[in-house]
Design goal:
The structure is a single chain. The protein is α/β, with parallel strands linked by helices and about 350 residues long. It folds into two domains: about 5-125 and about 325-335, Rossmann fold; about 130-320, Dihydrodipicolinate Reductase, domain 2 (2-Layer Sandwich). About 30% of the residues lie in helices and about 25% in strands. It is built from nine helices and 13 strands. The protein has helices spanning about 15-25, 75-90, 110-115, 130-145, 165-180, 210-220, 255-265, 285, 320-335, and strands at about 5-10, 30-40, 45-50, 50-60, 70, 90-95, 125, 150-155, 230-235, 240-250, 270, 295-300, 310-315. The strands form two sheets. The protein has a seven-stranded mixed beta sheet, sandwiched between helices. A six-stranded mixed beta sheet has the order 9-8-10-13-12-11. Helix 4 (about 130-145) packs across helix 9 (about 320-335). Bound molecules: adenosine-2'-5'-diphosphate.
């Protein structure tokens, strides 16, 4: 693809869309022309990009004329509705929604893991589920060294996963509860202020949630490991925008915490935070606004008699590595940047 590219952001006024804009600017993505697209409600809103001001336009089927790369984060139904208009216009759609992730012929890409898959697209490249993308960055280098066999994940997911409205709801409910007023539940499944709940996305026939099965199925696709054994419990916690995950990992080969630290210290997109004696471990507050995934609390699994099990804890910014950054990194792969 030619660089600089004509870029559009569909859903530019949302929590992820705003981070996409900031990430394009911060990483100096080679942009020739930039279009910011949202619903008619947002027309005329202005955003700064480098030293220009860009006005938000209404997303319509005509929006993609002359666009090379369209970053979508306006929800799955909007992605489905505009896919044809976007690809017919010759733009590559990098879609943050779950609409096409498991579709054959649509690459699902975490650039640290499977950047080369991005080139096998037929017009659409999918950006993975946020929890999955963050986990893959930390687990892939360990898998490459010691062959992952099974993973059990428990997640601690921030409000940002539900978009700007969910973040606002966490803040508003917290204020209301502190003021002695009842918390209003409008966006999330339950009260999130001073609470947590194991319910993200809808429940499926196997009693897992859709979010939990995204972790299972998307990881298998990204890592090209269709048989990988994964179980997952996804929990929403009263954190604003970074997800954390407790991961129990079983490998084919022996692995010690020291070996894992050595591997992770060199891994792209990872920063070690593993010095518990000095109270250093991953936390969502530190991961917030960071590109890298924090990894720590690395322990030999004490429930096993061999050395094939590890427990680790990770935190990563849901809006960045879990969404906007990963999408921009895919665009960078397409234009040959980095
Ligand atoms: P708008 O702000 O005009 O409603 P979030 O996930 O943070 O809630 O953001 C969703 C994003 O998707 C926003 O930019 C929102 O625009 C945009 N969006 C939602 N529905 C539509 C639609 N039908 N057409 C275009 N943009 C949409």
């Amino acid at each position: 693809m030619l660089s600089p590219a004509n870029v559009a952001i569909a859903g530019a006024t949302g929590a992820v869309g705003i981070e996409m804009l900031l990430t394009l600017e911060k990483r100096n993505f080679p942009v020739k022309n930039l279009k910011l697209l949202a619903s008619s409600r947002s027309v005329g809103k202005k955003f700064k990009f480098h030293d220009t001001e860009v006005s938000v336009e209404e997303l319509t089927p005509e929006s993609f004329k002359g666009v090379d790369i369209a970053l979508f984060s306006a929800g799955a139904s909007v992605s489905r509705e505009y896919r044809k208009a976007c690809t017919d216009a010759g733009a590559v759609m990098i879609d943050n929604s779950s609409a096409f992730r498991m579709e054959d012929g649509v690459p699902l890409v975490v650039p640290e893991v499977n950047a080369e898959d991005a080139f096998k697209h037929n017009g659409v490249i999918a950006n993975p589920n946020c929890t999955t993308a963050i986990m893959c960055v930390a687990v892939w280098p360990l898998h490459r060294a010691k062959k992952l066999k099974r993973m059990v994940a428990s997640t601690y997911q921030a409000a940002s996963g539900g978009g700007q409205k969910a973040m606002n709801e966490l803040i508003q409910q917290t204020r209301d509860v502190l003021d002695g007023k009842p918390a209003q539940v409008n966006v999330m499944a339950q009260q999130i202020a001073f609470n947590l709940f194991p319910h993200i996305d809808v429940f499926l026939d196997n009693d897992y949630t859709k979010e939990e099965m995204k972790m299972v199925n998307e990881t298998r696709k990204i890592m090209h490991m269709p048989e990988l054994k994964i179980s997952c419990t996804c929990v929403r916690v009263p954190v604003l925008r970074a997800h954390s995950e407790s991961l129990n990992l079983e490998f084919e080969e022996d692995i010690t915490p020291a070996e894992a630290r050595e591997i992770l210290a060199k891994a792209p997109g990872v920063q070690l935070r593993d010095d518990p004696a000095n109270k250093i471990y991953p936390m969502p507050m530190e991961a917030t606004t960071m590109y890298d995934v924090l990894v720590g609390r690395i322990r030999q699994d004490v429930s096993r008699t061999d050395k094939k099990g590890l427990d680790i804890f990770i935190s990563g910014d849901q809006l960045l590595k879990g969404a906007a950054l990963n999408a921009v990194q895919i665009a960078e792969v397409l234009v040959g940047k980095n």
